[in-house]
Amino acid sequence: MKTRLTSMLLTGLVLAIGLLIAVRISQNVRAGNSGVGVELTERQIDNLNKSIDPVIFKSVSERDGRLILSGTGPAETDLTLESPHESLLTFSTGPDGNWKTEFELHTEDSLQLEIIFRDAEQVRVRSDETVYRIPHPFYTGDAARSEPALIMITAPGGPTRLFQSPFRGMPAAGGLGLGPIDYDESGGVIFSGVSETSGRIRLYANDIVIGETRSEPDGRWFFIASDTLPRGAYDVRAELIVEDAILAQISLPFKRLALGESDKTPNIPVYVEYTSHRWQILRYLYGGGYQYTAVYAPNVTEDTTSE
Q1: Integer Cα distance of 176 and 214 in angstroms
Q2: Under DSSP, is residue 258 helix (H, G, I), strand (E, B) or coil?
Q3: Which domains, from first to last, does the chain contain?
Q4: How far apart are CA 307 and CA 80, in angstroms?
Q5: What is the Cα–Cα distance from 304 to 292, expressed in whole angstroms?
Q6: In sequence order, which residues have a C-beta less than 8 Å from that of residue 142 and are 6 or more positions away?
Q7: For the chain, percent helix, then strand, then coil, each to nearest 5?
Q8: pLDDT per residue over 259-297, tens digit each?
Q9: What does the alpha-carbon distance between residue 7 and residue 139 come to, in Å, rounded to a whole number?
Q10: How far apart are CA 188 and CA 304, in angstroms?
């Protein structure tokens, strides 16, 4: 009992000292001195209290060999569109923060695009979202341009938004659509899709319930879970439930992509496994780690698991 009481007193003393230090630092910052040898101006302190409007992609499309992008960001700010190897172009947002730009596609290689800008203190800021354009691998030249590339937008921890599918559509039935499936190496998974009818979306793996969500007013839905998808091959299923009745359901074969360490490297930011019914994309995340996305054809069936 005495040992426990002593431990509690020591813990309280440490917390009190920590609180005193925090108060002293806060007072020094208000006085224009950080307390650690760095002086902050009033403008810098004010900027610390302001949130930065993030750069967001609203749409991505291609037409006549050109990629067209639009979105929002900080008002009247210069933005630079970059790939991992070069700066492609610089443009500006309008007074309302809206922006739109386009450029000519000169390569049949995969593209990874991000937007960079500098804040009020000239600190380089990278957009959370990344655009990927991955051309069809089975065609070259004019034939490749006649086949739709995969165009998607991703952000760490969020559902992938698909703007163009190489399969010209997604698995759908009865007004329910199942979009890309995102997952990581720990088994965390993000399901997303669309629904023409408001209701509950229930998700399964091999007839075991993973979880449930609701479709948003705009018809979109997504569900995020951790440690859900173990390694192996099995079926995943999405059901649209309205007033306790199953209005529509989609079932498709799933298999986590298994790669060697030589395939997973920051020097090759995108790796793709292609089959006739599914593309799986591996991408490196800044700061470490990898994220995967599986994109399915509309006519995927259970007998494709052998591919």
Answers
A1: 12
A2: coil
A3: 56-150 (2.60.40.10), 167-306 (2.60.40.10)
A4: 41
A5: 20
A6: none
A7: 15, 45, 40
A8: 665 566 666 668 899 988 999 999 888 777 788 999 999
A9: 70
A10: 24
Closest CA to 293 of 101, 113, 142, 161: 161
Displacement of CA 104 from its chain's centroid (Å) = 25
Q: Assign 257 to helix, strand or coil.
A: coil
Contact by Cβ (8 Å): 285, 134: no
> Do residues 160 and 152 make contact, with C-beta atoms less than 8 angstroms apart?
yes
Percent of the chain with pLDDT over 70: 74
Backbone angles phi, psi at 30, to 5 degrees: -65, -30
The label of the residue with tokens 């354009």 reads 133
Are 300 and 276 spatial neighbours (Cβ–Cβ below 8 Å)?
Answer: no
Q: Please state whether the predicted TM-score (pTM) of the whole model is above 0.85.
A: no
Contacts of 221 by beta carbon, 8 Å cutoff, 6+ apart:
192, 193, 194, 195, 201, 213, 214, 215
Q: Which residue shows structure tokens 């089959």?
A: 275
Count the neighbouring beta carbons within 10 Å of the beta carbon of residue 275.
13
